[in-house]
Request: fold
Amino acid sequence: MSALPPSGSHGDPDHAAAGAPRPDGSRVVRMEPRHHAEVLELNRRDVDVLSPMDEERLSWIVARCAVPLVVEDDEGVLGFCLALESGTDYDGVHYAWFGARYDAFLYLDRIAVSDRARRRGVGTRLYVACESHAATLGRMVCEVNVVPENTTSLAFHGARDYVPVGRVPVGPPGDEHAKVVAMLAKELRAAD
Reply:
């Protein structure tokens, strides 16, 4: 599993894929334990489109992540993402679905943006950093709810050239209230 260089190095995601710190002081940095409480709160707020996670689970996932990032400013965490390369022992069913179909990928396990940072490009900055890393693997993958439909996320991914490669029900067979997710992929090439 490759890892991002530590913040402040030449390969810092702020200076590479995600752009330099913004005039508002926000910056993309590698997730550290000091971010965990705010990350868990953002995850709790969006648990209907993510999945539950406590401190132990977060630490377990981060230990396997190639791209555990936050966007922060002086007031705290504006957003976060957790992305894993193919070939880890991550136990997510959607990760396994992609693993059965592709040899190499970066899987976006989850991303969330705080209410105060909506429409400020935080999600885009996290995606740019992830896609930059994923280019070395050839593709980035994720899933988005289609039942119930997450129209905002579907539009965001469509605009970024993600294409549906499958649909997977979430929940027990025969559950009329089960969610369905679209499995999305974006083919990428490493910069020459």
